[in-house]
Amino acid sequence: MRLVVFGWGNDARGDDGLGPLLLDRVRRAAWPDVTTVEDFQLQIEHALDLDGAEAALFVDAGRDTPAPFAFAEIRPERGESHTTHALAPEAVLDVYTRSLRRPPPPAFTLSMRGERFELGEGLSPEAADRLEVAWDFLQRLMGERSVEDWRRKAGRPAR
Amino acid sequence: MLNLETAQSPQKLRRVAIEPVSRVEGHGKVTILLDAENRIHQVRLHIVEFRGFEVFIQGRPYWEVPIAVQRLCGICPVSHLIAATKAMDVIAGFGPLTPTAEKLRRLLHYGQIVQSHALHFFHLSSPDLLFGFESEVAKRNIIGVAAAFPDLAKQGVLTRKFGQEIIAHIAGKRIHGTGVIPGGVNKPLSVADRDSMRAGIDQIVDWSKAAVGLVIQLHETNPDFYRTFGESRANMMGLVDRRGALDFYHGGLRARDADGGPIFDQIDYATYRNVLQEDVKNWSYMKFPHIKTLGADKGWYRVGPLARVQVCDVMPTPLAEAERRTFLNAGGGKPLHGALMYHWARMIEMLHSAELARELLDDPDIVGTDLMADKGPRREEGVGVIEAPRGTLFHHYRADDNDLVSYCNLIVSTTNNNQAMNESIRAVASRYLSGRELTEGLLNHIEVAIRAYDPCLSCATHALGQMPLEVDLIDADGTLVSRARKG
Fold first, then answer.
1. Which of A26, B107, B314, B382 makes a 20 to 30 Å CA pair with B97?
2. Domain final residue, candidates B416, B432, B459
3. Residue B19 above 60 pLDDT?
């Protein structure tokens, strides 16, 4: 399964760096057929990074997501914006659908709960623990690496 | 200047707040005070989070600054990288850049402008312009554009992608790039990478020219509306070269008044404090800069595309200059000050940047290998200024004897435009909202004016992130009547 993994966030703002930190582990694991994409924020051109992938995984920090993390399947969804500054993963899928006129690959989000997002802060102890838990979970995901298995795992509370 | 900054008796008025709330970054909001007949008495664009970057950066080694500043903004990290590095060129003691280094920095900068302007127009602004300000809200977005105008939407995505590829080729990667360093650049451009970009740039020039044509078509549907929506007569400022031509990368500061008359010209930007003053107001954390000699009330100014195309004497590429002449003719010899005119000017600048990038890709120097300037003694202080996509961007630093940053002052484009944005939304509120029952479509008129500037609240607060929007309607007793949230 050709997989593209997106990790985004700002490592200068405390727990907002969770996404890039987890993505860095994915990159270093060097799994075959896995492409990584890091950015500060998701934007319209990320739709083009989905092209050719059989599945997509979006990893990010969340303020209101369940701890330690939430894993869910997402679908294209129209987003609204009053600035150019960011898109949600669902909106990236929709840009793909509309621009390339075909359905996007199955896509999942792995959102780790963060606590502190202030400029200049390091990773909070809670976020550091959650990064480890999420990494364990992600390695199990990569062990199976099938959309069917991921769908079974999606939506269940993390353990 | 409309007298809607401060109401006479605010305690008797209703308050409407259009409030972006956010997970990780700067918070901005618009508040509108209304009386019982919905007449507008006060309109303000606030920044309500204290900016932290200037303190955050103090105590760090000066050579880390060009990397650290990229965390300021997810949309224009390259602009901060280049402006900060220009300041550090001075502090580190470097002399003039080599031709190859300056051209690579310029190409990087033009790629940044192409990607930012494409994103701004196609993703953010075209839905309002193509569908109408009060059209169905569910359709009024890039997805709606993609559904109704799929080729246009695809061009927008691919044009932005091309700009990002220029950045990746020169800075090393899309984000956290290190290609630009004090004294020059740290890697040459390969012939293969140059050829790859050269193969695609003609298409980007063509699409950019078509985008200008689209804005003109839209303008022709209702010229008076386009010319006057969100109109605020402002002084204008931007960088020009010694001939008076627009220069995004380097030049002297030039300011013109609202009628196009000269205020100052060819000011060395390192002495910006001789001509500009930053004031604070008790209702916003964002500063209010103005031209010193004119004072706060008359000295506020506009930056960015609408100012730049009217401050310069010429844009030194043929297609863009021809389009600029057409734009100026729309003003009948007088400067244009409507907020929607930003979009027209922005697409002319995208065309100009694409043409400039093509010229550089045809220049043999661009694949040269002489990358670093000669180094002299270290200096205590440095200022770097560029024309970022949204307007003039100032980075000013001092470094102590231990090479640690001891002082930092940033004036970002959004801060330069602070008063101009406030005046534009006051003009819109006064003309379109006053005396009417507020609807989502009417409130969107305010947002349309804000979107024309696309204020980077991340930059203005020196943070980073997304900006969803919340609208609160609060009655005169302070009771929340309704709340709508999107984004």
1. B314
2. B416
3. no
